[in-house]
Description:
By secondary structure, the chain is of the alpha/beta class. It is built from 11 helices and 11 strands. A hairpin with a 6-residue loop joins strand 1 (49-50) and strand 2 (57-58).
Amino acid sequence: xxxxxxxxYIVAVDTYRHFAIAAEHCFVTQPTLSMQISKMEKELNVLIxxxxxxxxxxxxxxxxxxxxxxxxxxxxxxxxxLVRARKGQKSGVxxxxxxxxxxxxxxxxxxxxFTRKYPEIHLRIEELQTxxxxxxxxxxxxxxxxxxxxxxxxxxxxxxLYYEPFMAFVPEGxxxxxxxxxxxxxxxxKDLILLKSGHCFRHQVLNLCRTADDSNNNDLEHFxxxxxxxxxxxxxxxxxxxxxxxxxxTALDLGDEDRKLVxxxxxxxxxxxxxxxxxxxxxxxxxxEVLAGEVKLHIPKKLLTxxxxxxPLPVK
Length: 316
């Protein structure tokens, strides 16, 4: 008789396409995992995985079995969550994906308070791009995600958490260093250092540049540097390679010297909506509720609604 444990093992092998890695993620030895999968194959009289392939691949029949296994495991989890919800319990493992431009500035703000207040909730946080979060939500490998919205995905629920303004990081010697705030039409694409492709913040900045460059007739292809994190971009800016835009919370965490280089954008100040998203079939709504509430408690109050007027950094 096939067990839930065996189903978890075949799903793990399908996910990681490697028996040893799958065993590691299932917290068992590889021989144990392999033996259980072989036993399941023998009982069903089918071959689930083609072990001659590297990386290992499911057979045609195996693909169908694994799809059904994911459904069964998801429904099993839903039963557990239904019981917990009925009892008003807030406990268990909660898998959360957060995009790279949000995670470093957001998680340290709420995590310690959250874990102290809800010790029975075991939060598992993973840094992922937007597309990866959506994909993992679809196959129930995540319970929720925190990212920039709207996504226009009808199968997902979006709950806005806060609205984060864009701030200009303008180094000494730059043409705009003496400005108190930066006008959108002062942005020049050839002058900006951007995050690399795949980051939604990059696309949002590009949209601002297109608006500005439409009137300046500048070439949108002049981007000399691209990086995966704000720290590298700001270092390049200070070395004289241009300016950049950064999110408000990232600017808020800067040291005194770097904060002097941050300038607000004009009103209406460009901003991004940061939301927690989850599947419409998600059962862990009580955990999502307390998680969203805890995040909001540790965000500056002025970011909880759409920005009105220019929002500068507070003086330390």
